[in-house]
Structures are given as structure tokens and as C-alpha cells.
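Schema walk-through. Below, the input block comes first and the output block second. Nothing else is stored per chain. Lengths vary across the set, and this one has 561 residues.
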Amino acid sequence: MGWDKEVDVLVVGSGAGGLLSALVAADAHADVLVIEKEPLWGGTSATSGAGIWIPASDQAAAVGFHDKVEDAFAYVRALSADNVPDANIRAYVSNAAPMLRWLTQHTPIEYHAFPYPDYHAENPGGSPTGYRTHMPLPIDGRQLGRDVETLRFASPAASLFGYLNWHFDETYMLLFRAKGWQMHLAKSLARYWFDLPFRLRSRKDRRLTLGNALLGGLRIALNRQNVPVWLETPMRELVEKDGRIAGVVVEHRGRPMRIGARRGVVLAAGGFDKNQAMRDAYAPSYPRALYSGGTSGNTGDSIRAGMAVGAATMNMQSAWAAPVFYVPGEDRGRLCTIERALPGCIMVNQSGARYLNEAASYHIVGQQMAARQREHRDADPSWMIFDHDFRHKYPMGPLLPLVPDALQSRGVRKILRKGRTIEELAAKIGADAATLAATVARFNAGAVKGEDPDFHRGEAAYDKMYGDPRVTPNPSLAPMVKGPFYAMPIHPGDIGTNGGLVTDERARVIDGAGKPIAGLYAVGNNAASAMGESYPGAGVTIGPALTFGYLAARDLTGTNE
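--- output ---
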């Protein structure tokens, strides 16, 4: 067919699922190429927390949590959409632990099971104690050589000061000023600032944590296997021959190029987070591409390419919903995970009334915000309200504690509102003063007793995850009584779309007649999620991306057990 280059396996996209597919295939002695349309590699995975939801793992068993795959299946099955096949859910929960075992044996990546409760832990099969969510340990980025310079850096919401990588455990140390936090922060800053050769070329931190640790570890392993990653190489179309996908047309170094794939193509190029036209057409409940936490390359190219060769799609209306802060001038929203559950704050609509449990999972809060905006048009923006004590104890998105208002970034100063009284603050945000005052008074009356009779904040296991353990009887509740009072706008957003190409339990793309398209696989947000429109626990985005990436590579190389 006149190929300019031919390989066994071609992977489109350089996020977690794609790089693991490439690595597993290369380990099976396949000739593999990864292409990435952006000048940076790592995708949204690199900017994430890199938590992965893995039932019945070796790591969990090592700390005494003896999980059952059947419990995990029952838990996810009840939450997922009816149109998601049992086989896809079972493939995930049954193969997640073997995938993680393979990952840790073949890369420098280490994961540990974390006491992170499932988002709906009270449901049958849920885990209120956690240990299904796993977090990566830091990695020394110097092992990547010059490739670390083109690794996509952590998102502003997952880094400190916008340049310092920070591990999940260290977040707690800093957030609650645990013993030794000042010395630990000083050492981290010194390590970064004295890395002069690298810092002079880039503001990045070569101590890789969270998503950077996961993607960095995968790339280190790929480099050892001599698997190339071509940057700035967008895919233009899939090529069919004799009833199968035989390769792709790309643009590489400014010219079109045809690349053959003897065994198959794995689409791992993300969702359509940043494609406003596709959002308008498919996901109108999440209308603002700018507010998505996804990266700029997620424009649905490979989903459309799959549709062009007959692939079916599913749940295109869905997204990984989330409340986000938006700082003017930035290219994406900042996920709000922790702040909402801290004691001494509430979220209100534009009239000044609460309408949800602020401490619920970000997916549930994001869905409720989107529904409120769709039905009442008064939730975009909503407002996070907090008092003087909160302001100086905790962060609120991009607003840092211990830093005077005047020294915050220009973007933060633009969106921060402040009033000496609740009534004055109401005027600053355009809310009804009487409504906001009554809302705060009612919240305070319950908070002093550790109760939230309206929305039951702090009662569920997950609500307590990000509460302040020093606050009793409810770590998520404290009254707001000391002025001045503050407000920050918060928007219904997402961290990516999660509808996409229909796939089976082997990650093969399915056509409109329900049959696999030979030679074509899809993983991550390229594929319709096995979670449907739900979010069972921290790590059900990257966990399935890795697991189905692993399964795709084993299937197309014939190494499935």
C-alpha cells in the first residue's frame, strides 16, 4: 500500500493507557511506534494525580485489606450505566491487579494502596476503608535524560506554586501543618532551586510525582525497549485494507506520511474535552471547553477517525464531571478536590443558597452543579464562601493561605471577593443579602454541633476523607463567624469527557453491527468508559485506561493467557 514506514503496533497518543500498551507490546517483541500530536508527551494523565482504582491488589493484601473481585464487580455494576456490558466491567476488575503486578515488575514505578474510601462506600461491595485506590511513589526524572524536558508538567491544581511537584502524602503534611512541614518544604524548595542545569532550561521539577511519576516511569521503560515516541505527529485518518485497519495517515515534520501497522492500531488519544463543537453536539450539559481540566490536544480526532471507519459510539453525553476554579489567562480549569470538604466553607448559587453536599466526590458535585445550571441557570458560577479563619488555615483553589491578598497572583486577585460582613460580601457577588445571611446562619447553627441537616455533609465515609482530623465532632464542618468574609467563583466543569468508541472486553473497537473492527483498539477516554456515567472511586479514569491498554496489547500480540 506504499507505506512510508511499517511497524507491528502503532499507538496513537502518549497518555498512560497508550504508553502501557506500547510497553506490553514491545515486551512481546513487537515493533512499536507511539505518535503524539502535541509537542509535549504524557497527555492528561501526566497532569493528573495518577491514582488508580485496583480491586484485590497485592499491595492492598500486603497492608491487610483482602479484597474480593466479586465485591468490586457488584459495586461497579450497580453504579455503571445499563448499556455497559457485564463483560467489560468484569474484564476490568479481574485484570486490574494482574496489570498492576506486570507494571511494577517491568517499570521503575511503585504504587502503594491508600486508605482512600470509595466514593459510594456505603453501597454493596463498596470499601469505606479504602485500599482500592493506589498512588505512585516519586521517581527521579534524571533517568529520562532530555525526554523530561518534553514531559507535560503537572496541572496547577496538582503542583505547588506552579512549579514544585508534590506527593499525595506531602499534601496532608502541608495542608494541616503537620510536624516538620516547614523543614520539609524548605528542603523541597532547595532541591528544586539548586537543580541549576535543568532549572535554567525549564521551570519543571525533576522530582517526578503523581501523574509525572507514572508517565515518567512508563517512558523510562519504553526507552529501555527502544520504543520511539514521535511528537508533533497528528493522525489524520485510519487506513482500511481487506476489512481491517492496516495503518494510519499522519502528518510528521510538516509532511503527510503513511504508517502501516501489521498487527493493529491502538487509539489512546483522549476524549473531546477541548473541542467546543463536539461538546455542543454531544455533551451540552458540560458546555465550556475552557473549563475542562483536560489538556489542549484532547479534541476528539481519533474518536472521529474511528467513527469514519464505522465504529459505534456510546455515552457521548457524559464527562468526568467536576467543580473547577478558573483563573483568567489559564488554558483550563483547576479541579477542586479537597477544599470543599474542609471545615468552615460552603458553596452557594447566585442567589446565595446552598444546594448540595460540598464534601461529596467531585464527580457528584460536578454533576449536581451542571444539573442545577441546566434547570435553574444560577450555578455557573456558584460561589465558595469562607471566613477569615478558613482563609488563613487552608487553600481555596488557587488562593494560598499564609500569603497576603496583595501578593496572590494577578489572576487570583481578579476573581477573589471580600467583604467585612456577609451582607457586604453578598453585594460583591451579586447575591441576595438576606438569602446569603440566612444560609450562613442556618449552616452555622448545625456546624457547631457537627451536623448538616440539609445535605448531611460529613456523614459518609468519603466526606471525611478531606476533612480536617483536628476538628471534632465532624471534620468537615465548622461555623463561619469571623470576618472579613471571602468568596471565590466555582464552575461546573470536568476533567475530561468519557463517552467514546464502543469497545469489548479486549478493548477491540466495535462497529455499528456489534462486530469488532479488525486491527483497531481504543483505551482511556478514546473509548466509552466501563463506568458509564458514574465515578465509583478515585482512580477509575486511569485504572481502566491502564488495564484495557494492557489487555489490548496482549490481545493484538497474541499473549493473552
